[in-house]
Amino acid sequence: MKNVFDVIKRPLFTEKGSSLKESENKVLIEVARESNKIEIKKAVEELFKVKVEKVATIKAHGKMKKYGKFAGKTSDRKKALITLKEGEKLDFIEGA
């Protein structure tokens, strides 16, 4: 298995993510593009000391952007929607 810090990049703080956390006990994080669901689950359980019930992944393709007269593309990303087991809590701002 890879290092947990190679798999998990950063938490995602969005309005949709915060509403999912409150209503359905789900957490959004950005992960490495080459990681799979099993690696993501093991990394979250090891790093945050919580039990994970389910992992869903989402690939977000980069967008075309213009920087003055130059055209470029933002990086592709991969997000993970992690469902925590009943009674588990994970809050990035207040601590685990």
What does this structure look like?
This protein has one domain: Alpha-Beta Plaits. A four-stranded antiparallel beta sheet has the order 1-2-6-3. It has a two-stranded antiparallel ribbon with strand order 4-5. With 96 residues, it is of the alpha+beta class. The longest helix is centred in the middle third of the chain and has 12 residues. The model has no long low-confidence stretch (mean pLDDT 91).
The CATH class assignment is: Alpha Beta
SS-based structural class? alpha+beta
Helical stretch count? 3
Major β-sheet profile: 4 strands, antiparallel
Spans of at least 5 consecutive residues with low confidence: none
- The CATH homology group name: RRM (RNA recognition motif) domain
Strand order of the largest sheet: 1-2-6-3
If you compute it from the alpha carbons, what radius of gyration comes out, rounded to the nearest whole angstrom? 15 Å
- Structurally, the number of domains stands at 1
CATH fold node name: Alpha-Beta Plaits
Using brief descriptors, characterize the structure shown.
single chain; 96 residues; alpha+beta; Alpha-Beta Plaits; four-stranded antiparallel beta sheet; two-stranded antiparallel ribbon; 3 helices
Please provide a brief summary of the model.
This protein has helices at 4-7, 15-24, 37-48, and strands spanning 8-11, 26-31, 52-60, 64-67, 70-73, 77-84.
Summarize the SSE layout with pairings:
Elements: H1 4-7, E1 8-11, H2 15-24, E2 26-31, H3 37-48, E3 52-60, E4 64-67, E5 70-73, E6 77-84
Antiparallel strand pairs: 1-2, 2-6, 3-6, 4-5
